[in-house]
């Protein structure tokens, strides 16, 4: 009597294989790879700023308005006060990435919490939280950031807080939409039938499935935070104790006809940092969006 072989149930993919699949999908986007390399260079510059330029980047080191490559000691030249632009660019990269990452983390924490609570609770809780999100979206973001910084004072933590406060509504709306799409799925209903608590269902079942688009949105929030900080510093409300790309652009605008490089060098740095984050965001979208994984 012959017996048919018993087929073993399919095992879930190992984490290493999932990571390899994600890396392969991300690598197919050449723009995203270029953005990741560029972002890594900015991060390396920020991490090595203290080693490359251990002294205060805001101190006067030479004659004013030395053009780039005119002196080997100052490869990017000096500004109108005789400060080394290369040192300020390196230390400014540290402040820029710090503000962008912390502001994005703040916005993501607030947005995910508000969006998840609104979608799960529904009813008047959903209405109230979404009206609050709309209130934040009605106020022009730049005006809100400038107002908060003017009230609290021009410090880096106040700028970061203000940028985080204006950046959470889109994340909240996206999280709410994702939660609503998963809330009535079969696996959630099965968890309810098994008696799982709402907190466990949200944290262990819905949130991991809703996070991929939120991660993509958060990467774009980092780019927006860099632009907000540059605007605040350009207008003279940035922290005077740190080197900032936006502040350097603002201080050089009065000399744009004679020494345009003072504005151009930090302006190019801002452009490349924001461009790299947008390219990485596109790559994350291609790699994490299930609708695009077979494209």
UniProtKB/TrEMBL annotation:
Alphabetized UniProt keyword annotations: Cell membrane, Membrane, Transmembrane, Transmembrane helix, Transport
Main localization (coarse): membrane
Domain of life from the UniProt record: Bacteria
Membrane topology summary: Multi-pass membrane protein
Membrane spanning stretches: 33-53, 97-123, 135-153, 214-238, 258-281
GO cellular component: plasma membrane
Residue ranges of every copy of the ABC transmembrane type-1 domain listed in the record: 93-281
Matching PROSITE patterns: ABC_TM1
Entries under InterPro entries matching the protein: BP-dependent_transpt_permease (IPR050366), MetI-like (IPR000515), MetI-like_sf (IPR035906), OppC_N (IPR025966)
Localisation per UniProt entry: Cell membrane
One biological process term in Gene Ontology: transmembrane transport
Similarity comment: family membership: Belongs to the binding-protein-dependent transport system permease family.
Protein name per its UniProtKB record: Oligopeptide transport system permease protein OppC
Organism per entry: Achromobacter insolitus
Gene: oppC
């Amino acid at each position: 009597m012959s017996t048919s072989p018993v087929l073993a149930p399919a095992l879930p993919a190992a984490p290493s294989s999932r990571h390899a699949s994600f890396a392969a999908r991300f690598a197919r986007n050449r723009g995203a790879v270029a953005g990741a390399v560029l972002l890594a260079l900015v991060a390396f510059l920020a991490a090595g700023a203290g080693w490359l330029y251990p002294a205060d980047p805001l101190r006067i080191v030479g004659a004013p308005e030395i053009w780039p490559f005119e002196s080997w000691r100052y490869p990017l030249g000096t500004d109108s006060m005789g400060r080394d632009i290369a040192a300020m660019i390196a230390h400014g990269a540290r402040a820029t990435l710090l503000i962008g990452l912390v502001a994005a983390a703040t916005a993501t924490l607030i947005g995910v919490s508000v969006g998840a609570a609104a979608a799960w609770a529904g009813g008047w809780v959903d209405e109230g939280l979404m009206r609050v999100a709309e209130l934040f979206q009605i106020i022009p973001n730049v005006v809100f950031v400038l107002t908060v910084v003017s009230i609290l004072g021009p410090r880096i933590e106040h700028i970061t807080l203000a940028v985080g406060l204006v950046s959470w509504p889109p994340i909240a709306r996206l999280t709410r939409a994702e939660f609503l799409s998963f809330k009535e799925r079969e696996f959630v209903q099965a968890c309810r039938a098994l008696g799982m608590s709402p907190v466990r269902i949200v944290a262990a079942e819905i949130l991991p499935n809703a996070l991929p688009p939120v991660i993509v949105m958060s990467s774009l929030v980092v780019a927006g935070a860099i632009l907000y900080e540059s605007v605040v510093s350009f207008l003279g409300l940035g922290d005077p104790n740190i080197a900032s790309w936006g502040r350097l652009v603002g201080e050089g605008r009065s000399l744009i006809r004679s020494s345009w490089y003072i504005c151009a060098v930090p302006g190019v740095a801002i452009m490349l940092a924001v461009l790299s984050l947008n390219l990485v965001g596109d790559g994350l979208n291609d790699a994490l969006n299930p609708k695009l994984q077979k494209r």
